[in-house]
Design brief:
- Helices cover 45% and strands 17% of the residues.
- The protein contains 6 helices and 3 strands.
- A hairpin with a 2-residue loop joins β2 and β3.
- The longest helix is centred in the last third of the chain and has 17 residues.
- The site of zinc ion has 4 residues, from loops.
- This is Metal-dependent hydrolase.
């Protein structure tokens, strides 16, 4: 069984995941830990949700012009969402504008997974690479960041097993 969303995690964790899948308990375990889907369904709601995090933690980062659900993002190893930084010269000044797109795959996900993705994409406003500084910023915004990323990947794995491929 290939666990494509969990590449890079240590083998002892993957072995536990395989056991849960073999016992057909992965979905049940996730459902118990994350019982509720979020209600951030529209692009407007997603923008407001993201801006609340930005205003709280990343006030000095460039403004975000747009945050949208995007059904064209292929969810793979490191692309749960996408961010683009656009720089333009306006009246002699360089203006940076950022856009964040989140895969519609997470439109019906538990709220903590959406939070993890939004935190990830916001951190990219300051740190381009997945560096130590990048993950420190993620953990500053969401102390459980690493656990949530792992669990979100578990959830994606479970969805794929149910035929809901991203
Ligand atoms: Zn990233």
């Amino acid at each position: 069984m290939s666990l494509i969303y969990l590449q890079g995690y240590p083998e002892h964790l993957l072995a536990q995941v395989r056991t849960l899948i073999d016992q057909q308990r992965l979905g049940e375990v996730l459902q118990q830990r994350y019982p509720d889907a979020h209600q951030v369904l529209s692009d407007k709601a997603l923008y407001d949700y993201t801006l609340a995090f930005k205003n709280r933690f990343m006030r000095s980062a460039p403004p975000i012009s747009k945050v949208i659900w995007d059904n064209k993002i292929k969810v793979m190893k490191h692309a749960l969402g996408l961010h683009t930084a656009i720089s333009r010269v306006q009246g002699g000044n360089l203006k940076a504008k950022a856009e964040i797109r989140v895969s519609t795959f997470f439109r019906h996900a538990p709220e903590p997974f959406l939070r993890m993705i939004v935190v990830h994409e916001l951190a990219h406003l300051k740190e381009k690479e997945h560096s130590k500084a990048f993950y420190q910023l993620c953990c500053h915004m969401e102390p459980d960041y690493h656990q949530l990323e792992f669990d979100a990947r578990l959830w994606m794995t479970d969805q794929a097993l149910r035929g809901n491929a991203a």
